[in-house]
User: Which sequence fits this backbone?
């Protein structure tokens, strides 16, 4: 049987990849990777970059390029067979990773290169890879006795499987709930675009009427516009209890035990390595130095934001009572009355704004902005192998015509696709004797799809999400680092990895940029000045509430890892309540099970690291403030950011790269100014 995962093609052959290809390919590539390490160590030295590190990197790159499309397809076109194939390999990959990290001969070989005369001759990126590797050997338990190494390996495999199980529970719970509406009056208040989407969803199921579900565009439309309060309550309850012991599918895909096991195993893993807790372990690869630094940073921001958040909520309650005679504002009312209030005070309708942001205008406009900033040309490639008809494929050329990267764009929500938005690497930049391997990225969102002949219309929040993920993509694709371990986002401290993404969001608020990304989907008219002024006036509407909500997530994540006590268990909702008492202003109902769907920390890479969004937002706001001084399309400033940040990948510490661009360390003032919160 020909196996497309074993054919070292330039791009994945998605249409040919079947579940039965996965395990044989990964098994074979793991055998080859292990054999390469054994062969290279057999000589006994002296070891060098070229006779040890480079050949191992080449083999692991081959493994990554086979696993990447499998992992991606499991997220975006999930099926039982692909899920089984994916899960069958998780333990094998985890075992290999731990085995390499605990290989004392390999560690000694890396150390010998570090201590040799050759080390001084290596470039900065190569030195960083070796230093990172030596750190990671220790974080993998290379110093542990055999029994503890075995336990570490066991924990790592279990954590890998539990993260996948958590994500599967959430996907299944999200797909399980829907509500068939047969009377249009039940959907009163919904705009035409949302009604058309619900009708299209019903038609796809062969039903009359309208179908609403827990995919985010459907949920957001109900929460924001549905006049029917009982429907909002029902939808909110279904969404906020996914994969839990509460709600319409209580206990069916319950993540309670999974979360407890994850926290217990993370804590045990950290203690095996002599950290007090997993939060300390997490910071070993981040910019932040101590757990106290992180907590103080978050609590300082909370102190600066809390009064405004309370004022935001008080104003919303007063508005709901005065204008709509509602005196018991609940969690499922917040979005609805916030939208009413935005329209009342700013005459700003999110639905009106959407009409100026068709995807057919936003995407080429985004490319134009990047072209102006960095001198790049982005064009679509029409012929390519794909996993779904929605997907588009593009290439990026620099001003000399050199190919810098390519990316897949998969924008719309659908069944069997994981929720949220993300960038992931498909192929990483690497220079070898075979030539230059240019990077390829996946950019994935869950926007409302087009209905009928009309293009997809994006909310301004969705426009910002697209810019955010594209910022990650540029970080991956524009790298000029030729060594795999620190090219693109590889090797970047996790609390700095959001800098390029949040940085890109700023252009969504600049008039000069908006003229490039906006045009009414029917008339072609650019966003009117009057509407833009309303958007600006409302930009920081409820900024305090939004800030403390993000701080609630960040503090909760950090504290459940920092204060884990094996004798007491995870105390997940107890700690969440303590954090809410400290920073939150909106009270949520008893049945709310937010943590059961917080996949960033239980199934993603953000465990004891969700604070990174706020940490990096300080960097991104301060970086953008230089463009505010020089001009948002100032080419010299753009090229400085390109050369000092985007192209450098993880080849230097993030703080050094930031200072090279900004000329100083970051300060928080720009973030507070951008969010309208007084310092």
Assistant:
């Amino acid at each position: 049987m020909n196996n497309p995962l074993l054919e070292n093609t330039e791009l994945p052959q998605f249409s040919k990849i079947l579940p039965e290809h996965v395990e044989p390919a990964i098994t074979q590539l793991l055998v080859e990777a292990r054999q390469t390490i054994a062969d290279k160590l057999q000589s006994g030295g002296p070891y060098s970059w070229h006779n040890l590190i480079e050949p191992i990197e080449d083999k692991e790159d081959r493994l990554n390029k086979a696993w990447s499309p499998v992992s991606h397809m499991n997220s975006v076109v999930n099926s039982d067979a692909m899920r089984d194939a994916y899960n069958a390999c998780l333990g094998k990959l985890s075992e290999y990773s731990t085995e390499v990290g605990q290989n004392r001969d390999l560690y000694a070989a890396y150390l010998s290169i570090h201590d040799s005369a050759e080390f001084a001759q290596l470039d900065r990126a190569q030195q960083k890879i070796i230093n990172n590797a030596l750190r990671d050997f220790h974080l993998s338990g290379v110093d542990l006795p055999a029994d503890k190494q075995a336990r570490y390996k066991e924990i790592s495999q279990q954590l890998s499987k539990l993260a996948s199980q958590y994500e599967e529970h959430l996907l299944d719970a999200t797909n399980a709930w829907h509500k068939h509406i047969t009377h249009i009056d039940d959907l009163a208040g919904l705009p035409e675009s949302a009604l058309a989407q619900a009708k299209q969803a019903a038609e796809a199921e062969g039903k009359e009427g309208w179908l609403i579900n827990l995919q985010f565009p459907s949920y957001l439309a109900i929460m924001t516009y549905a006049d029917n309060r009982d429907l909002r309550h029902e939808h909110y309850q279904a969404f906020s209890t996914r994969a839990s012991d509460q709600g319409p599918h209580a206990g069916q895909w319950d993540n309670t035990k999974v979360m407890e096991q994850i926290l217990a195993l993370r804590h045990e893993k950290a203690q095996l390595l002599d950290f007090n807790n997993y939060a300390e372990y997490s910071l070993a690869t981040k910019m932040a130095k101590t757990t106290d630094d992180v907590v103080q940073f978050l609590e300082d921001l909370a102190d600066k934001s809390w009064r405004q958040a309370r004022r935001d909520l008080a104003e919303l309650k007063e508005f709901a009572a005065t204008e709509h005679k509602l005196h018991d504002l609940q969690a499922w009312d917040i979005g609805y009355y916030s939208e009413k209030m935005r329209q009342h005070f700013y005459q700003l309708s999110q639905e009106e704004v959407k009409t100026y942001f068709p995807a057919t205008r936003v995407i080429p406009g985004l490319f134009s902005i990047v072209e102006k900033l960095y001198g790049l040309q982005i064009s679509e490639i029409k012929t390519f192998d794909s996993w779904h008809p929605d997907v588009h494929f593009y290439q990026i050329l620099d001003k000399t015509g050199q190919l810098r990267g390519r990316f897949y764009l998969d924008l719309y929500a659908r069944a069997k696709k994981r929720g949220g938005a993300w960038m992931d690497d498909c192929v990483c930049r690497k220079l070898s004797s075979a030539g230059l391997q240019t990077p390829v990225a996946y950019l994935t969102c869950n926007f409302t799809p087009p209905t009928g002949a009309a293009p997809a219309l994006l909310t301004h929040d969705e426009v910002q999400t697209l810019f955010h993920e594209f910022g990650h993509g540029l970080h991956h694709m524009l790298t000029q680092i030729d060594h795999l371990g620190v090219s693109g986002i590889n090797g970047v401290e996790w609390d700095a990895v959001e800098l390029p993404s949040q940085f890109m969001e700023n252009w969504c608020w600049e008039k000069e940029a908006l003229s490039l990304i906006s045009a009414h989907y029917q008339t072609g008219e650019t966003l009117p000045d009057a509407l833009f002024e309303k958007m600006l006036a409302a930009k920081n509407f409820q900024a305090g509430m939004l800030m403390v909500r993000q701080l609630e997530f960040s503090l909760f994540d950090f504290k459940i890892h920092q204060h884990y006590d094996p004798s007491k268990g995870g105390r997940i909702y107890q700690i969440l309540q303590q954090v809410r008492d400290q920073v939150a202003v909106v009270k949520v109902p008893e049945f709310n099970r937010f943590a059961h769907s917080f996949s960033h920390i239980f199934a993603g890479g953000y465990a004891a690291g969700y604070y990174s969004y706020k940490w990096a937002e300080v960097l991104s706001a301060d970086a953008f403030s230089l463009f505010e001084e020089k001009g948002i399309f100032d080419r010299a400033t753009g090229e400085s950011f390109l050369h000092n940040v985007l192209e450098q990948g993880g080849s230097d510490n993030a703080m050094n790269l930031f200072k090279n661009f900004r000329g100083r360390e970051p300060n928080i003032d720009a973030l507070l100014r951008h969010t309208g919160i007084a310092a």
Observations:
- DSSP finds 27 helices and nine strands in the chain.
